[in-house]
Amino acid sequence: MKIVITGSSGFIGGELARRFQETGQTVGGIDVQPGAGPLNDFQLAGLGGEVSSAIFQNTDLVVHAAHDMSRESGPKNISGTKLWFQQAKQAGVRRQLFLTSYSAHASAPSEYGQTKYSLERFFIDQEELILRPGLVIGPGGSFYKLAQFLARGKLVPVLGGDAVKLALTDMESVFQVINRFESLPAGRVLNLFHPDRLGLWEMTRLIRRLRHARGWAFPVPVGMSKGLLKTAERLGVKLPNSYENFMALLKSQHYGYTSSYAELGVQSERPADLIEENLLRS
Fold first, then answer.
1. Alpha carbons 72 and 88: distance in angstroms, whole number
2. What is the pLDDT of residues 147-192, one digit of tens each?
3. Residue 177 and residue 159: Cα distance in Å, rounded?
């Protein structure tokens, strides 16, 4: 079986590539830079860049994991993903899967969420596969950056505290579901996150305990957090989070997305246990 992954050098794309290769699959990748390990086939290109259709030949699945995170890149992400989708389709690829985001929604306040939502609609119209993972626990990506910040700071304001509930999944669950792509229902979004949400303040205390962090972490109420972020942006002070991203996170609490773990047959430990296992391994 041959799998092609766009964004193959990113955390999720790279982890998928490694795991598919370990199971004996042929893996091709497309990205702006090579990943950590060699692939069976690789083409250097940014989203929407020119790629040879040869990479899509005899391919069973294309996983669309590429996303340009630079500002005002929404149109580029949409047109670039659609371009590679059409190339793959013309090359006779059997199935295509789009990795969207928990932030995706018609009323999302961020460009990122709006872009992901637009592409969700496109893949639904194409009767293809769409997975909406939560924050992916693992040794890279957004979770890793957040965990590093929460563990290393000597004075850590936890914006929103436990009013912020995180939808979490883990890399093994993401891989196992995609590995069964032939049996997944097409034309609708599948929510890939644990049914139990974890409060940000609870997660902070867990991470700092596991990392034997020194200093002081404290929850900041939502209203005060908004004011702090607005003031920081006015003064040009760079914080790990922005006002826009914080508002997007708060709004996502009310999208009403429910976990598809039961439907997908995903057997997973509680998010707190997954975090503990991950941090103890790293």
1. 26
2. 998 998 789 999 999 999 999 999 999 999 999 999 999 999 999 9
3. 32
From the centroid of its chain, how far is CA 235? 30
User: Within the chain, which residues score under 50 in pLDDT?
Assistant: none
The answer to whether domain 2-134+169-195+256-268 has CATH 3.30.1330.60 is: no
Question: Amino acid letter at 228?
Answer: L
* pTM of the shown model: 0.93
Residue 78, φ and ψ in degrees, nearest 5 = -70, -50
DSSP type of residue 185 = P
Q: Among 83, 117, 97, which residue's Cα sits nearest to residue 181?
A: 97
Per the CB < 8 A criterion, the answer to whether 184 and 245 are in contact is no
Map out the domains of the chain as residue ranges.
2-134+169-195+256-268
Percent of the chain topping pLDDT 70 = 99
